[in-house]
Every structure is written in C-alpha cells, then in structure tokens.
C-alpha cells in the first residue's frame, strides 16, 4: 500500500527573531526579522521544498505566533493536520540570533513553558503515524514532560507499524535539567531508532562523557540502529553502518554569514537523497552541500535550497 | 535635607517588539523594532526626559535583553544602582505590538517566569528609598511573588521615611491568577498610597466590580490617599482630592498611530507638573498633552516628549 | 440585631498524631493517637466547650482525615457550614508529636500541598462573616496562596461589617519561604487587626528582628490595634492597651506532660473571659489557667478545659 | 567472582500507619501502629528474613521517620549503604490503612513531594550495582522525576554488568499523572527487564487497556523478558516462560485479616525459591504460601514469614 507521507517530523516549533543589523552584539541590534524555526520544522520545510511529502506533529501557541507558524508550514506544502494549538496558555519559544561575526554566532533562547513541550501522549494518533514511511524525532522534544511521553507514544506506534525511526539529537541546553537526564533519554531513544544523526558534541551528551566514534557506534549497534551519522563541523562527517562500513563525508566551501541552520539543511538533504535511493556517500554530499548553502543566507527556514541548487554546488565544487 | 531623587519607580521592565510594518495582523508583520518597555520604566524615562532626577528599582534578565534595558535607562540619565540582574535564569518579558489600525491595537505579552517578578524583599535597600521624594509603585509588580513582597517592603520603608507613595494601577492581564487576587492586592496597596492613578477599567479591577467614581473615591478616602486620578480614555479624566475637589481633565486632539504608551506619558507629565508646583488642573493638561504626543509616534519609551513640546501643544490647542 | 456567632476562627485544620508511648525519641514510638489539630480549630473547640457560639472557616482534605476533622468539630457544636472539602486532591497536614521529656517536646509537621492553604478568596461568603461578633485569623493561613488572599478577603468583609478582628500569630515554620515574607504579611495583617496575640518569638517574626515589647506596641498602636498580648512562656504574659495600660499576667503551676496546646487553650479562655465582660486582668488569668490544665494532658484539642475547671484552678492557686 | 548481594531492591520507602482498631471506617480509628512500608522495602525485608543477602537503593526523609526506616532495615540485616537521606526537605510518604472488613480493605496514601521520588540519577553508584546478582525495580519509582531517571540509570548499569533485572509493577495510583504516562514507562521498563511480575490489573496499566495474558506475554517476549508472572488474586497466578511453558499457580487457604502485603510477601518467597534453584512450579507455591501467611497478620513488613513457616504451610495444605 502506498503511504501518504515520506516523512513526518516531531517536536519543537518556534519563532526565530534574526538580527537585521549584524556583526555586532545583540544589545546593539534594534530590528529583528521573524522566521519560523525549530529543528524538526526546518527539516519539514527543507524536505518539503525538496519535493518530499511531509507532515508535522507538534504543539504551537494559540496566538499570533502559533498561527503564523502553522500557516507558514501549510503554505510550503507541509501537512499540519496534527500541528495542534495549545489550549492552556503556553507560549511560542523565541530564538534571538546574535551574529557578531561569521565565526561568533550565538543564540538566546526563551523557552519558559513553551507550547511544544506540552504535546501530550493522548494527542498522538496511531492512524497518522501509520501513514508515513519515516518518522523523525527531534531530541529537544525529549527535554520535558509531557512532550517526552508523547515522543515515546509516537515511537510505540511507529514500531508497531514498521515505520522507520530517525533520531536527530538536536541538543538545546535551556530545557534540560541535567546532563544525566539528557543522557538517559537520548540513549533510551537512540536504542529504539533505526537511524541516529548528530554532532560529536551531541553524541557526547548521549553518552554523558567525551566519547569517541568507534566506541559510540559499537554501543549503539548492539541495539536497533543500522545507520549512524556523526558530524564534526568544518571537519566533515562520518556515516557508520551496522554491517561495518564507514563513509567519510567532506564539507563544501561557503561564504559563511552565520552558522545557524546548517544541521537542519544537512539533515533535510541527506534524508532526501536516501529516500531517493542514492548511496550513503552521495547522501552525505547532499547534506554537506545544503549546509554550505544555508550558512551563506540570513534565515534557517527560508533559505532551504532546492535539489537543483544542491546538485549545482556539488558539481561545481567536486570538479 | 535635599533628597537625591525626585522619583523612584518600581516594577516591570521588559522588551517591546513593535511591528515595523503595521495596519495588518501580527501574523503578517515580518519585522519588529526593539524598545525598552514596561510602565514604570516608561515613566522613569518620561520624567527623566522632563528633567526630573529619577531612579528605578527592578530586576532584569542577565542576558543581552536585560543588559540592553539597563544600559538604555542609564543612557537617558536614570539611576540604575538598584536595577538588579537576575541570577536564576529568568527571562525578560516580551511585548509584541499589533497595530491593525489606530483603533484596533493589541499587545501579545509573553510573561512566563519573567525576571521582574523575581525581585525579592531582601533586595530592597532602605537607604535607597529614603533618598527620594516620591516613589511610584506599578501595579503589575503585585501580580506575583516574590515581587509582590518586594513592593510591600518598599512601601514599609517609604512610610517610615515619609516618602510620598504613588500607585499607578497598570493592570496587565496575563500574570494575575484571578480577579479576586487582583482586587485584594490592588486595594491593600491603594489604601496605603498617597496618590492613586488608573483608568476606570483598572479601578474596576481594584473593586472587583463595575464601579462608579464617586463610590470609588469615597471608599479610598477612608484610608491614606489624598489624590485620586481616574482616566476615561478619549472622554478625558477626573482628579479627586480628599478635601472634596473634583477637577475635570480634557483630552487633546492627536493624529493617532496607536494607543500604546498613552498612560505612561500621561503619568510622567502629570507627575512632572505636580512636582513643579503646578495646580492639579494644569497637571491634568500636561498629562493629556503628553499622551496626545505619544500616541502619534511608533514607540512608547523613545517618544516621551519634552516640556517644550507639551507646553506648545497645550498652547496650540487651548486657544 | 443579635449575631448568630460569638466567634468564627479561620485557618489551618490538621491531624495531630500524638506519641502514645512517650519520654523517648519519635523513632522509638510505635503507636500514635489521632486528634484534630491546628491552632484555629483548637481555639474553636476550646471556646465552644466554654459555651461560646462558634464557627470555623477552612478547607479540609476530601478523604477519611478531612471527614474526621469536620465531623469532630460539628460534634462539639462548632458550625461547619463553611468548612469546605477540597476538590483538587490536597491532603490534610500531619503533626507528629515527640515527647522526649516534659522539657523536650518537638513536633514534626508534614505540610506539603495541604488543603488548608488552598482555601480561595472566592470561597469566602460575606453573609457568613457578617453573622459573627469576632473573627480570629490564625497566622499560618497567611503562609501561602490562595489561603493568604482568602484571609484578606475575610478581613475586607469583617471591616465592612464592623466585625472585631483578632490576629493570633501562630507561626509555624515549614510553610513560609523566608523571614522577610513572614514579616511582611504578619505586619500587613496586624496593622488591620483590633487585637493581636502572640509569643515574643512570634512578634520577632512580625518585626523581622529581635524586638522589644515597648517598641512593638508603639509601632502597632499607630494603626488599628487596640489590644496587644505578648506571651513570654513560663515567665508570664503582658497585655497592652492603646490607652497606655500594661497588665502583667502570671502563670499557674502545672504538672507538665508536654508543652503543646498551651497557646490555643490560653487564647480560648482569654477570649471567653473578654467576651463575658471580664477585665483584661481576669482574662489573662483565664488564659494562664487554661494553659496550665492543657499542658498536663495528652492531647491539645480534647483537653480543652471547662469554665469550672479554669475557675477552680485560679481559685486554688490564687490563694 | 562471588557477588556480595543476592538482590538489591530499588524504590519507595514509606511509613505505614495501620489501624489498631479495625473492622470500622478509618474516621473511627483513633490509634495507628507504625511500620516500615513500601513494596521494595517489604521485599528487601522479606528476602532478608528468608536468608538472602540484600541491599536497598532509595531516598528517605531526613527526619524521625526517615531515620526509623533506615534503622529498621539495617536491623533486619539489609545493607543500607545506598539508602540516602534527602537533603531538600522532602517528606516520608504515609500509608494509612483502613480495614472495614477482611473483604473491604483500602489505603489512604499521602505522597506529596515524598523523598523517594527525589532519588537522582547522579546518586546511583555503578560499583554498588555490579555487586549484586539481581536487581528489583519497583514500578512506583517510575512515577516521577528524578526518581524515574535514577531507575533508568540503575538499569543501564545493570545491563552493563549482566545483573538480572526484575520488574515488580507495584502500581500505586496517586503519583501518576495519567494512564498514558504509566503505560509508556511501564512498557519501556518491562521491555528491558528479565523477569516481570504483577497483577493482571497492573499489566492492564502497562498495556493501557483491558488485556489478556496470551497477548501480553506475546508482546513482551519480543523483547528481553524471559519469565513473566501474572497474578489473578484469589484465583491464583500464572508464570510464562519465553520458551513457551505456562505454569499454573494455586492459592492457599488463609484466615484473612486484611489483603495488604500479599504481593510483597509473594514476590519475596518466589524470588527466594528461584534463587535457591527450585523450579518455577515450586517458586509459585512459595509465593502463594507466603502471601497466605501475611494476609492473616496485622502488618506487611513485620509479618514476612520464615522458610520453615512457608514450607510447613505448603506441606499442610498440599496434603
């Protein structure tokens, strides 16, 4: 039976307020441009722009910001039937970006009682989960209850219906209580996923120690994962398969404006390539190329590139 | 003995994010301009611009937003020795303005675990309070603990040192738990104040019923207040004195852009006039003129007018 | 018009679990006897036993313990029409007593999310307040919200209907957040009361310093109080009146079993005497005699003496 | 290498206050006898009395009740090196028993901010876990954070060191937020355990539906469990093994006083028998016999029988 969706992403949806005037501290930025943000939203947007059939499960504030987020996603073709409006007065998270220089980017996250962490397990619909080929869990959704339980409910349905489970670690500091807590839920989740993607720093959070790739993948391959991607920033990335392959992914040159959004565009293009039957090696190139494009643009969500742009960059730089 | 300050204001400090593109719903506003906000901050700025010696007691977030707020106030001449940085990770409140039309303005307040409500009674310095002639309590500071207790601590010291206590009701919905709670603390506070200023709607919150001016002032004049100002929006305002005077304040014409900030500029100019020995009648004109000027401008804090501008408008329109 | 009640008490109702085997640490006590407890409940029971018409305003847990408390009070003649069952799953506070020796008594209070602190201002009925001559506020009811606001609502109605307000400080450590908080609400409440009763230690909490009686009463007589009773344990007590009288109250000898309950029996008999037109001097004797009787008995609530027993002890020891 | 412990139990420790006068509603019970309680404590006591080497991991209140609990356990030979005193003011849970008749027993649990739910993952010592042959997780420890994370930390260390993991469901209503939450953590935990023991009602909580044994075990045998025991009260119990055996366990006659404590004595004797190389069939008899003895006695913890008493009852009733 044909599935309705290629991918459903699950988790955080927020408002990005990006410094309009940059190369200065945020205290001196007087104007901010509003974008939709949050890793699983960005990946939904990125994969949707690449032509995939995508849905989003999450909870947004029942106000102008939440309505903007939901409408924006619907406008780029994402199915928002399970993008729920919060009914208890919770807010949309805010991410203010500070771009002091291309090398010094930071974000200021406001995540007090944000709607996305109030998604409840009772709100997850088995019927919706079974309509998709893949589901992507974004790690921040595990940072608090009841969203954490909602994620485990998604996983339960996904396993029941043989939906492939992708886990994007997406570690965001301000909502976790302790490193011990992060490690516990990241490892519980990773052990149940088919594919795990994250930076080396994020895998360190998963293991609650400064780890090492070979040890990390040896641990996880005892459980369900069959593909693990570990990103090392400007040094490239590595993909590991359960049957022992190690594929070394390079990076592409870019005229860097800021570093935000690289991970989400990477994940989007990587998933697109895998879903279209490309090899892991090519998928890593797609990820790296998409990241190179996004870091040269002002936003994270709007800058998600097209397949043509990605292929052009690969062709250009692989020469 | 000469006092160091004419006025110290106490309470909420926040970030205003004002729609740059307006006459549309906020969902369609894509750029926001950042200003310092919060009623007692605006009144501190307003009175400081009018030449008064002013201090501010409050707590701001220990991040880029909090630093911006404190620096902005210091730059306009406000004493910020008791503007404290929060050390527990609380945030700055956000006020997003929506200007659909001059008649349809609304605000979206994000006030989850905001730093201003975490000012503690132990942080109030008796020495600072005794250096001022007047203290202005802004009602929102009573909306939660421990800020509520900090306000009562301020009042205790102010009474001890014969500092005049002004109470600006400044009712802001999202932080109060119930109307009963608002009414209880508004009336406790009003009974201990020398001057009470608010809109008719705010006095209704104080009384927890749709009240009527004569009854309101009869109730409050049993206690400490000697001057009560009740504002009726475009219909003007009334000042009542304990010895039975009723002064009818008019409004001035304005090319209205938005309605935000009218109350704070009104209070600033009214207090300035009283502090300079003008009659209540003239003080009401000052308030009304300042409000007329601010509603024609984009911001609340930056638009606070000068004495010359206020006097010019009065002269012009009183002809 | 004849009032239905002589006294309504307001505040904490709990379960006392008194060590059956005593003169040992609680770890070695294996059996506990159950009694109704809480200062305002004990005073309601005490005054009711002395023949006064008494009501109780408070909230009890909706379980076996709460039902026991309400039924016990009703059985001794207290009006419990406004003794409300909690509907949100809160519990009854527990007080375990430890009697190591008559000189070494301590209590272990369990007061996590107790029902009595969840009385809401909206639940206070103006009609009920206006039916009583006196109302007694017990200080612990000010320790948390919304009970704190419910107390202020009671006071508002009492002032409106000229009901005499008695404030029994009843300081109980575990529910207050800080000494500054206690001092703020104790002084706000005391300034609005007609009669204030407490130990010297409790007045120190009110003033947030080690105070001295003359200074304490000078401060409070600036406001509404007309009678202040300060108790000094085994050294006796002093009553101060606004017109300058100081009455020195003695203590009576007793075969002390434990020290719990002395304050509540003191307050009960003192109020009884005042309500029956006796002089302050005689009322102090009544209080001291009732305390002497209760400390020789095992419980606080059941041991409340009769008028005859009090008068007998006074006659005996005043010889 | 010889392990120091046969069993370490993990979870809730509390105070049981058992009605001294029974066959009446609790409102009419005026005396309570104090015992140590909590399922994993009772199982530690039960197995220790049966001669096993036992430790207990948990957190108790830093007061007379917590000290009583820890001392009582140490006195019956349990290792309490990792029975930690809470340092944040949390209390000991209270369980009041009501015995209206042998058929109508109920409990009233007070579990607001109880110390046992504040055990933190950072407090779990890998060295301690690796010293035991078996670890028993009691389900209530999963009901809240950070205790829930502490349990997952225990499991992580146990899996690393090949310690057998037993999961006793022990469902206790008042601490869970929703049935969905219970089901999620019960199933996550059960999938990682070697042995799962519970009543049919508790397995229904695990599955969040009225389930059926064959389906339950089919689900769980997909994961790690190799032995599942489902108890049906007076109708007996069933043990299921991964290799397809079903063993039908009978019940023994008893002069029932109350039904409390049956499950913990059952688990204790069952584990003892398995640990001593007896067949599952005999272990089920041990469990049933121990339960029959405990329900005829007043307490849960003190009544745990000896091996001789268990064997005598089996011999007597199996004739």
From TrEMBL, chains A, B, C, D:
<feature type="domain" description="Carbohydrate kinase PfkB">
    <location>
        <begin position="6"/>
        <end position="306"/>
    </location>
</feature>
<dbReference type="InterPro" id="IPR002173">
    <property type="entry name" value="Carboh/pur_kinase_PfkB_CS"/>
</dbReference>
<dbReference type="InterPro" id="IPR023314">
    <property type="entry name" value="Myo_inos_IolC-like_sf"/>
</dbReference>
<dbReference type="InterPro" id="IPR011611">
    <property type="entry name" value="PfkB_dom"/>
</dbReference>
<dbReference type="InterPro" id="IPR030830">
    <property type="entry name" value="Myo_inos_IolC"/>
</dbReference>
<keyword id="KW-0418">Kinase</keyword>
<keyword id="KW-0067">ATP-binding</keyword>
<protein>
    <submittedName>
        <fullName>5-dehydro-2-deoxygluconokinase</fullName>
    </submittedName>
</protein>
<comment type="similarity">
    <text>Belongs to the carbohydrate kinase PfkB family.</text>
</comment>
<dbReference type="Pfam" id="PF00294">
    <property type="entry name" value="PfkB"/>
</dbReference>
<keyword id="KW-0808">Transferase</keyword>
<dbReference type="InterPro" id="IPR050306">
    <property type="entry name" value="PfkB_Carbo_kinase"/>
</dbReference>
<dbReference type="InterPro" id="IPR029056">
    <property type="entry name" value="Ribokinase-like"/>
</dbReference>
<dbReference type="InterPro" id="IPR022841">
    <property type="entry name" value="DKG_kinase_firmi"/>
</dbReference>
<keyword id="KW-0547">Nucleotide-binding</keyword>
């Amino acid at each position: 039976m044909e599935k309705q969706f290629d991918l459903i992403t699950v988790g955080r949806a927020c408002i990005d307020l990006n410094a309009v005037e940059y190369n200065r501290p945020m205290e001196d930025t007087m104007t901010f441009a509003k974008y939709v943000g949050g890793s699983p939203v960005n990946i939904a947007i990125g994969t949707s722009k690449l032509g995939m059939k995508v849905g989003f499960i999450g909870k947004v504030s029942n106000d102008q910001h939440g309505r903007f987020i939901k409408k924006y996603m619907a406008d780029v073709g994402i199915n928002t039937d399970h993008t729920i409006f919060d009914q208890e007065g919770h807010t949309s998270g805010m991410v203010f970006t500070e771009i002091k220089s291309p090398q010094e980017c930071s974000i200021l996250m406001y995540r007090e009682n944000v709607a996305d962490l109030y998604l409840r397990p009772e709100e997850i619909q088995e019927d919706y989960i079974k309509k998709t080929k893949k589901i992507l869990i974004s790690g921040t959704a595990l940072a608090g209850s009841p969203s954490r339980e909602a994620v485990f409910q998604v996983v339960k349905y996904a396993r029941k219906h043989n939906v492939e489970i992708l886990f994007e670690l997406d570690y965001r500091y301000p909502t976790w209580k302790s490193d011990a807590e992060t490690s516990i839920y990241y490892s519980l989740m990773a052990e149940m996923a088919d594919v795990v993607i994250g930076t080396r720093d994020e895998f360190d959070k998963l293991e609650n120690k400064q780890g090492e790739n070979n040890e990390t993948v040896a641990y996880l391959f005892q459980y369900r994962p069959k593909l693990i991607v570990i990103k090392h920033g400007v040094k490239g990335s590595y993909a590991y398969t359960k049957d022992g392959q190690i594929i070394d992914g390079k990076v592409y040159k870019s005229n860097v404006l800021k570093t935000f959004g690289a991970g989400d565009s990477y994940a989007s293009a990587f998933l697109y390539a895998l879903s279209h039957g490309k090899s892991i090696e090519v998928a890593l190139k797609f990820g790296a190329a998409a990241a190179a494009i996004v870091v040269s643009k002002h936003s994270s969500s709007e800058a998600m590139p097209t397949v043509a742009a990605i292929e052009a960059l690969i062709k250009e730089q692989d020469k």
